[in-house]
Design a protein that fits this description.
CATH architecture of the largest domain: Sandwich
Number of helices: 0
Oligomer: single chain
CATH class of the largest domain: Mainly Beta
Distance between the termini: 54 Å
Structural class: mainly beta
Radius of gyration: 37 Å
CATH topology of the largest domain: Jelly Rolls
Number of strands: 19
Order of helices and strands: EEEEEEEEEEEEEEEEEEE
Amino acid sequence: MPYIGKSPVGGGFHKLDALTASATDTYALTLGSAAYFPETANQLLVSLNGVIQAPQDSFTVSGSNLVFDTALTSSDSIDFVVALGDVLGVGSVTDGAITANKIGSGAVTTAKIQDGAVTAAKIGSLPTGSVLQVKSMKITAPVSTTSTSYIDTGLTLNITPSSTSSKILISYDAGVGISASAGGQVNRIMRDTTELMNRGVHWSTAGSSSSTTSSSYLDSPATTSAITYKIQFLTQSASSTVTFNNGFTGYATPTANLTLMEIAG
């Protein structure tokens, strides 16, 4: 409420006990012979040799000590030290009292944000189609089999979707080969133990042949738990040896790639 007359002054304003300069930079502050503890150098008005000193630049405080930036001598004169009021103690802030306008530009820095504090739940919805995360891996060693049951190629990736509405785009590519009789190779994309799709590469003639295979699939896992995607393959005929990530004679080491992309749904 408004006051009649002059408003009351908050905090204590004190001229501290006199200090005598000597060959040191540190001086104990007292008020009435009792130690005085400023909260900050900005709370003090200090005059040295007739010149007002700049807090933080010319002096700081450490506990109940006044610390000048350089040591003084006995020929210096500390004219006075005045405490310009006690620092206001703030209790709990009322909910909603601090608005965006009260936060200074650049006040919230990366260093002020605790690791892991900003989770998906704290981020507003992103436009549909936004890329949320990308993971990829590769293998450089060929994998061969005569098995007519699926085996792993080595292309395996884990991902944890940030939303149940997210889509996961899976894509892979590799060289493939077959030797011996005519036949084919079948590749498939797995999400954990669920087959998402399969595709084959078929050779109609006997002998050694090479080709390439690549595919992609847009999955809707509807989960925020960790899931595993992998590429598996088999041969259509046990008498044929098929190779995933097959090399081509005279060319560099083969590379097969798997990429997962989480897309906002």
